[in-house]
Design a protein that fits this description.
single chain
Length: 118
């Protein structure tokens, strides 16, 4: 993470060949995964819970060429007892908006500690 504050996270990523599609730009699935991850981290920084995705909307505005660097900004817009709403934007090196997304999570589940020892 480049910057992580309560309810916001900023990340940088180099778009590599494995992230690309047949047209030499970042694959849409990669963009969706980044929206999911970065908006979830923003929610986690505010609520200390991951939650369960219920809705995600993504608008692809411009491609990110393989080999370029992008900045991903996730923001927790509102977190309540049962729902959390977040947004995410992806920018290129010039600051152009490439992708924007909205993400809703159900937060009614109790916090679960993961046992990574097995």
């Amino acid at each position: 993470a480049v910057v992580s504050t309560q309810s916001t996270g900023k990340f940088r990523l180099n778009v590599e060949k494995g992230d690309g599609n047949l047209y030499g730009t970042m694959h849409g699935g990669m963009g969706a995964s980044l929206v999911d991850l970065c908006s979830s981290v923003a929610i986690l920084s505010k609520c200390s819970r991951w939650g369960i995705s219920t809705d995600m909307q993504i608008s692809y505005l411009k491609g990110a060429p393989v080999g370029s660097e992008i900045e991903i900004v996730g923001q927790c817009d509102k977190a309540g007892k049962t729902l959390a709403f977040s947004s995410c934007q992806i920018f290129n090196e010039k600051g152009d908006l490439l992708l924007k997304g909205q993400h809703t999570k159900y937060m009614g589940t109790p916090h679960v500690e993961l046992d990574m020892t097995e």
